[in-house]
Amino acid sequence: MVRLFFTLSPTISRFSIYPGISSVLAATNTSLRLRRQHHQFKTKTPTLPLASPSSSSSPNFKRTRFYSTGARIFSNSNYFDDNLVVLGIETSCDDTAAAIVRGNGEVLSQVISSQAELLAQYGGVAPKQAEEAHSRVIDKVVQDALDRANLTEKDLSAVAVTIGPGLSLCLRVGVRKARRVAGEFSLPMVGVHHMEAHALVARLVEQELSFPFMALLVSGGHNLLVLAHKLGQYTQLGTTVDDALGEAFDKTAKWLGLDMRRSGGPAVEELALEGDAKSVKFNVPMKNHKDCNFSYAGLKTQVRLAIEAKEIDCKCPLSSTTNGDRRNRADIAASFQRVAVLHLEEKCERAIDWALELEPSIKHMVVSGGVASNKYVRLRLNNIVENKNLKLVCPPPSLCTDNGVMVAWTGLEHFRVGRYDPPPPAIEPDDYVYDLRPRWPLGEEYARGRSEARSMRSARIHPSLTSIIRADDSLQQQTQT
Ligand code: KG4
Ligand code: ZN
């Protein structure tokens, strides 16, 4: 595996591009050094002689249908790695994000337009409104990513886009845009699994992080404990039987009447600093389940009841409430956060033991996804991980919450080993059916960790990423022998 270095500028400037819809645009300031470096390799990489403008049926491109067989021409080639430049597009939930990343891990640009006002208005993500907001800004976000990297589409080697899991309506906006760019400029495409992207962005940050490693991925919709064996191959040790922790943070923030514009998590984390974390007695979920699964629905109910018992009025903003009421809200926030994270700690401890039995060479545990930007979460999990003689790898907050860098980077990782689709046609038929995977498991379930409660409730819609890649690998082996 090629060693990478990380040069993402720590300064992220936020400014509004569409005051009318109150989008917030965040962009990394690409350093002059990066721009200079980029000019040195302006020549397009040799990835594209394979493609022709209407090359969907080109014999040079094997039709890969996202992660199936492709020509493995880039592996172990540092030269090609350094010259690859991938655009990543992310629209699976409420952030419209794009970024451009080089094969050696340099982030050339990062742009995010978040739906802050919509989030505050609806107290969560409303799919139709989110889709409209993505559609309004997607062209501008992608153009800004190109401009900030000082590139045009012609300089790209490939386009990576999140195809699932997520909200169909929202995924569609990103995939449509990615296909337009790829079709017009004859670029190969990589369909990215959103949760794999959360995990793999840690490899862009931490040079030592190689497979196998453990990962806890905590976002608004997922609470996953996985063992990453290799690129695209994961064993799912645990998941949530109901809600994810991010959802519990969001609801707690909403019921406490907090400002949701940055999503609920940061608001609860901030208020919790003022509170007594042992003042409200909440039960740690699933104490008697000797597995690695999570449940946050019951804790949410406990929080709601505590809020009702203290007669907290969520319509009254924090800024205009009494000192006593503010104190009550802070105590609930702190107590919720403590117990919610205790649940994470207990399950992570067990998952590390399981993972070390399966892969004794593991050295790292990645904690990523929006909730991993929480300082208390990081601190507590660092203790657990260190006690087990592992090293915690947490991407910086800007790469923990949804972003385009993680998609571009994951696209690069797969592209390098030949997993990509050929360029789509320059003009897509009106009735083209996009390959969207709103419910798409990442790994295969570890038998010991299976939860009856969950498997009865959630029907799988799409085969897991891991099963697709394993099937593809064995097909490759068969054709080679
Ligand atoms: O990964 P992400 O950006 O989007 C999804 O894939 O869902 O995660 C968003 C979730 C939200 O529920 C948000 O409240 C939570 O991450 N989050 C946090 C923090 N920052 C974001 N939760 C706790 N503390 C934070 N500082
Ligand atoms: Zn996410």
Automatic annotation (TrEMBL):
Domain called Gcp-like: residue spans: 106-409
Cofactor or coenzyme needed: a divalent metal cation
Protein family: Belongs to the KAE1 / TsaD family.
Matching InterPro entries: ATPase_NBD (IPR043129), Gcp-like_dom (IPR000905), KAE1/TsaD (IPR017861), TsaD (IPR022450)
Catalytic activity: L-threonylcarbamoyladenylate + adenosine(37) in tRNA = N(6)-L-threonylcarbamoyladenosine(37) in tRNA + AMP + H(+)
Record bears the keyword tRNA processing: yes
Summary of the function given for this chain in its UniProt record: Required for the formation of a threonylcarbamoyl group on adenosine at position 37 (t(6)A37) in mitochondrial tRNAs that read codons beginning with adenine. Probably involved in the transfer of the threonylcarbamoyl moiety of threonylcarbamoyl-AMP (TC-AMP) to the N6 group of A37. Involved in mitochondrial genome maintenance.
Pfam families, per the entry: TsaD
Species classification: Eukaryota, Viridiplantae, Streptophyta, Embryophyta, Tracheophyta
Subunit structure: Homodimer.
Compartments where located: Mitochondrion
Alphabetical UniProt keywords: Acyltransferase, Metal-binding, Mitochondrion, Transferase, tRNA processing
Record-given protein name: Glycoprotease 1
Cofactor, how bound (note): Binds 1 divalent metal cation per subunit.
Positions of region (Disordered): 41-61
NCBIfam families cross-referenced by the UniProt entry: gcp_kae1, T6A_TsaD_YgjD
The encoding gene: LOC104783086
Organism expressing this protein natively: Camelina sativa (False flax)
Keyword Transferase belongs to the record: yes
